[in-house]
Amino acid sequence: MKKSMSKLLALTLLFCMLTSSALATDTLEVASTYTDTVLETYRSIVDAFTAETGIEVDLVTPGSEYETVMKTRMASGDLPDVWETHGWAVKRYSEYLMPLNNEVWVPRMDPAAAAIVTGPDGNIYGACINQSMGGCIYNIDVLNEAGVDPASIRSLQDFYDACEKVKAIGKVPVYIGGKDSGNAAGFFSAIASAMLTATGSKYDQGAALQDGTFDWDTYGTEVMKEVAFMVNSGYINVDFTTADTVTQCTAIGAGECGFLWRHAQNITWAREYVPGANIGFMPYPSYTGEGMAFMAGEYLCLGIHNETENYEAASKFVEFMTRPENVETMCRAQGCLPGFTDVTIEGDYAIEAFRAAQETYADVIEYTNLFDREYFPNGMWGIMGEAVTTVVMDPTDAGIAAAVENLKVNYYDKMEADGN
Q1: DSSP strand pairing (257-263 vs 365-369)
Q2: What are the φ/ψ torsions at residue 380 (nearest 5 degrees)?
Q3: Phi, psi angles (nearest 5°) of residue 20
């Protein structure tokens, strides 16, 4: 009787172990930010993964509530097996993510993508399937007419010299669709990087921005003075407040301006609005000309929970998403650059422009995260746009002071809200 009971107990334990193993490897929870048509594309790839592996995927899609949901789940310790890091792989999520340095796809990742998902400890915390690449877009025909060699632009002074030449031929030097605040915020990112954080910046303030000791009255004022200088010099379009993203993309495509400081998707859009537009791409100039920055932002970037019981399934899923055909599909769906060097999308003009820039500026390029994701507390993006708009509308000392005060107050409020 005892032997029978022992055998039954052993069989029961074995059954439980097998059942637990099956649950741990055959069902995977994946959290996504996507909605609408992009979600449909993503879901089709997820379905293909299930068809190939037999691993079921529970795709959780909170939509606009994604960030709130993830913060709640972090607090409770109940996190998905895999989730989209939406720009915060290192700064927000790294303590909850598994280092992925030894995954098979890592050697294929683009250096720009790898830089933004690698922590100070050298660990890679996400698979950056595609990326938004911020840089300086220019109209080749306009610069040729103005006698400007884009390869000679390295410092802010080089850039201002180019702006003078563009203005001299009756073109707008720098176009910003300020009606869409993200364009103004992107412009702030580039100027702040050049002044405060890039290798060739005027001031070395990266650490102070991150630890909350940044002197806004001194160095914040310096950044906004630079914006005011560009406005007062006539380098910014006068219809800043009424122009939107379509307007700015049409302007750069049609040769109405020389430069557009924004992410590479604008190249694709510009050529949709103005077929055949002759456009180039370069990293943002720095103050001294060293360390010119391409600002890479995570778009579809996947991390694996460091306490997942489904590591094998999670690893297979992430590897599946990094396959060239799936990377290409998601790039086309989102208009982004691939996060992997072995992915070429035939006929994608923006990718070709980016690759050409990587060669031309190879000696000075550095890849950084988007400025607010690296140096600001969460929630500053809109405030950055407001600051630029304030100075464009009033490029005097009073306008500069108002913009700096708005940045300073929100920076400290949000630092406190983040627990810093």
Answers
A1: unpaired
A2: -90, -10
A3: -60, -40
Q: Report the distance separating Cα 200 and Cα 360, nearest Å.
A: 18
What is the Cβ-side half-sphere exposure of residue 225, based on CA atoms within 13 angstroms? 9
SS3 call for 101: coil
Token digits for 95? 């303590």
Residue (of 202, 194, 398, 297) closest to 406 by Cα position: 398
Q: How far is it, in rounded angstroms, from Cα 391 to Cα 286? A: 21
pTM of the model: 0.81
Strand intervals (E) in 96-211 = 127-128, 130-139, 172-174
- pLDDT tens digits for 40-55? 999 999 999 999 999 9
CA distances from 391 to 163, 225, 245 (A): 19, 9, 20
Q: DSSP assignment, residue 340?
A: B
| Tokens matching residue 229 | 């200088």
Task: Provide the residue type at 309 as one letter.
Answer: E
**Pairwise CA distance, residues 81 & 338, whole Å:** 24
C-alpha to C-alpha distance for 150 and 136, rounded to whole angstroms = 10
Token digits of residue 319: 């590897």
The SS3 call for residue 76 is: helix
What is the rounded distance in angstroms from the CA atom of residue 384 to the CA atom of residue 389? 9
DSSP labels, 181-242: HHHHHHHHHHHHIIIIISTT-SS--HHHHHHT---IIIIIHHHHHHHHHHHHTT-B-TTTTT
Among all chains, which residue has been given the structure tokens 């996060």?
A: 339
Q: Which residues of the chain have pLDDT under 50?
A: 1-25
Amino acid at 153: I
**pLDDT score, position 420:** 61
What is the rounded distance in angstroms from the CA atom of residue 299 to the CA atom of residue 318? 15
Asked if residue 283 lies in contact with residue 293, where contact means CB atoms within 8 angstroms, the answer is yes
Reference 128, options 391, 288, 330, 389; nearest CA is 330
Give SS3 for 66. Answer: helix
